[in-house]
Design a protein that fits this description.
This protein has about 170 residues and is of the alpha/beta class. The protein is built from 2 helices and 7 strands, in the order ββαβββββα. The N and C termini lie far apart (about 70 Å).
Length: about 170
């Protein structure tokens, strides 16, 4: 008896994997169909250095491009691979393994907020910015150490001094 896996994961990217810019908007749009977004959503340089501005449904948005610290990110699609019928291929219907595959790699990320620069301190909805703070920390921890400049004096003293044990009458 051959047992097939319930989940097949393929997160490989190649030169032909399309690059994508992801915009994290402070709203929900209840649609899953293609839309001519580039015709209506046109970000421009903002008033503050390093920011972008745009309008969406009449509301001003201010965006920033957070640093991804050379970490890779991809957009994935999950499907049931039971037949070629598009409607029957939804996850909730049909049988067969769920396939998760890379659709695009994230080349650029823009985080938007209403009327102000997005920050980890402005709203509880910016968990992504909080997570990227840990990416910064991880990149700092794993970065190679730079050697001291030539001719600089190096210290041979220990970095911490020993603290004598407290006398407690023992």
């Amino acid at each position: 008896m051959t047992v097939k896996p319930d989940l097949e994961l393929s997160l490989h990217t190649s030169a032909d994997t399309p690059a994508s810019t992801v915009h994290l908007l402070p709203c929900t749009i209840h649609a899953t169909r293609p839309a001519p977004v580039a015709s209506y959503f046109v970000p421009q340089a903002g008033a503050e250095l390093g920011t972008l501005e745009a309008t969406l449904r009449g509301r001003k948005l201010v965006g920033i491009r957070p640093d991804l610290y050379s970490y890779g990110a991809v957009i994935v699609e999950a499907r049931r691979d039971n037949n070629d019928d598009e409607e029957a291929n939804e996850l909730a219907t049909g049988r067969g393994p769920i396939r998760i595959a890379t659709v695009a790699k994230i080349d650029d990320l823009v985080v938007w907020d209403h009327d102000q620069v997005p920050s980890v301190h402005t709203d509880d909805n910016f968990n992504l910015l909080r997570a990227l703070e840990y990416a910064w920390l991880a990149s700092a921890i794993h970065a190679p150490l730079e050697p001291p400049p030539a001719g600089a004096a190096t210290s041979t003293a220990p970095s911490a001094t020993a603290v004598p044990a407290a006398e407690n009458g023992e």
